[in-house]
Write a structure and sequence with these properties.
By secondary structure, this protein is mainly alpha-helical. 75% of the residues lie in helices and 0% in strands.
């Protein structure tokens, strides 16, 4: 059974809308992680200068782990 073009277009619009919403929520979550981790880091670190070190290490090592290795 074939879908009519209108149903296919409606499904595509729904999928793009859902993916856009998920992307927006994911971006909002990252902003909150950065903000909250800096505030918490400032409250438990011995010096305010060390407040962002944990989140920095998290993203540096995540980036290093996803860096493609050269093929031999």
């Amino acid at each position: 059974m074939e879908e009519c073009p209108r149903m296919k277009l409606t499904r595509e619009i729904r999928n793009v809308s859902l993916l856009s919403l998920c992307q927006a929520l994911g971006q909002t979550q990252m902003i909150l992680v950065f903000s909250v981790s800096s505030i918490i880091g400032a409250s438990i670190a011995p010096s305010v200068a060390w407040a962002t070190v944990p989140i920095t290490f998290q993203f540096v090592f995540m980036t290093l782990s996803t860096f493609p290795r050269p093929s031999s």
